[in-house]
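=== RUN LOG ===
request id: a7f3
mode: sequence -> structure
chains: 1
length: 250
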Amino acid sequence: MLQTTDTVTVLPIKSNRLDKNHLNGLRSPGLLGKWPLIGLMMILLGGSLFGVLAVGVQTHGSLIQTDAQIVNSLHDVALQSAPFIQGVMIFGFYLGEHAIVAIGAVLVVYFLYKRFWPELAMVLIAWGGEGAIWVVLSQYFSRPRPIFDISVWRQMSSPGFPSGHSFSAVLCFGLLAYLLVPKMSSPFWKAVGIVAAVLIILFIGFSRIFIGDHYLTDVLAGYGLGIAWAGLVYTSIELISRRNMAREEA
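=== RESULT ===
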């Protein structure tokens, strides 16, 4: 008597959460919510950097003299640079302001359309808060910008400490890297994405010094604020989102 056995093929079942993360579009990877210590370190390190620079500016310490030497040296280089180089550096102004506003607007429309509320909150709170913080701090410190007999581009009259361009660059391109890099399958392209974001942020800050709109401490203070504010906003929103998801699943 012959016996037959039925063969059952078991197909691997992928995680619904993983599939959802890849198919739903530009969503936060949730790393800051999972490891809030990263956000805390961003707040402490960025806040400390800004605090040290703010004290140096307020007390007119040795940083002021170093600031003047750096900006004067770069200004001499800028005046002797080719028009193309000057144009590239002037472009840093528009990249750090107009382009960031445009990117923010695109992200807001996209997140509204997709109903990605945590990501929408990240953009609205981070961008809006940055503007308010910059206005308050720049008026409080009221630090004059560098003044030259011959300017590379133009002379700005608004207070220069901290640099709003550097502040917003960290928030914008840091968030883009945070959203996009985890979705890249290749380690090589992940590295490229991270390096590109860092280089853009550094370029914006350097261009502001090169064309004579800011001192080095203005730019570094903007970076410090950007790191601290990004850590606070993005981590808090992800923690709240995780808590709300846990309640819905309970």
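=== NOTES ===
Residues 31-249 form one domain.
Residues 216-249 form the longest helix (34 residues).
=== END ===
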